[in-house]
Amino acid sequence: MTTSVPIALIQTRTPAGPAAAFAHVEPMIREAAAGGAKLVLTPEATNFLIKDRGRRDAVLETQDGDAVIGKLRDLARELGVWLLIGSAIVKSGHDGDDRAANRSLLVDDQGGVVATYDKLHVYDVDLPTGERWRESAAIRPGDSAVIADTPWGRLGLTICYDIRFPQLYRALAKTGAVMIAVPAAFTVPTGEAHWETLLRARAIETGCYVLAPAQAGEHEDGRRTWGRSMVVAPWGEVLARLDDDEPGVLFATLDLEAVAKARAAVPQLTHDRDFAAPA
Q1: Taking the model in full, what pTM does it have?
Q2: How many angstroms separate the CA atoms of 112 and 134, rounded?
Q3: Tell me: the pLDDT tens digits for 134-146?
Q4: Is the separation of the CB atoms in 156 and 144 below 8 Å?
Q5: CA distance 139 to 210
Q6: Which of 216, 122, 118 is nearest to 165 (CA)?
Q7: Cα(178)–Cα(256) distance, rounded to whole angstroms?
């Protein structure tokens, strides 16, 4: 296992249509591979971004039937890179539940899907700006944490709103994750207030690299997302970032020895104690 890995985060402004979504992300993935990245990560909702339920259901497919997923798998094989499809919106496969799954897929350099993860925590909020989001109405939450082996160490899979639940990240770190992915489509108000702080906190708490590719800018369906894709090192410093909400590619090289150094300096993952909850 190598001690360093060149990576790239893809920041997108994903269109509403699947064909346009692939046309949008493909050249940036090619740029990432041409720049030497061996692990490439895309944001949440890479296959399309549609707020309207009717329009979404008209293009919704199963994981195996989704054209964008299939083309991205072929692209990973062609380019010889590992590709985290930050998430794709697909049919959940649960009878009697017509909600979709918000699913992250880790694809190896042969185009094989080696791990999938369905977003655990769904975004049901009323923001001070008046924005109201009820992700649970359209997305069936997952029920399992997922960690995957890569040539460079174990990668924990999370999506967007999961970042607010530190117990998930601690569980991934204690199961051996050295990197944790946080593909996202953060709203502007919450992104401006909390995005960097939450990412750095999760890195510090776990001693992991946190890799956060983001949706960015004003989308076809009217939503606005924060962008500012970011790589945070295990000691909590920002290793690389994009400073705006424009689509682009963010390169970084991870020194995986930094994980052991951070955990040796503050061995918090070994200091859990049972305690009684307050009454």
Answers
A1: 0.96
A2: 33
A3: 888 889 999 999 9
A4: no
A5: 24
A6: 122
A7: 7
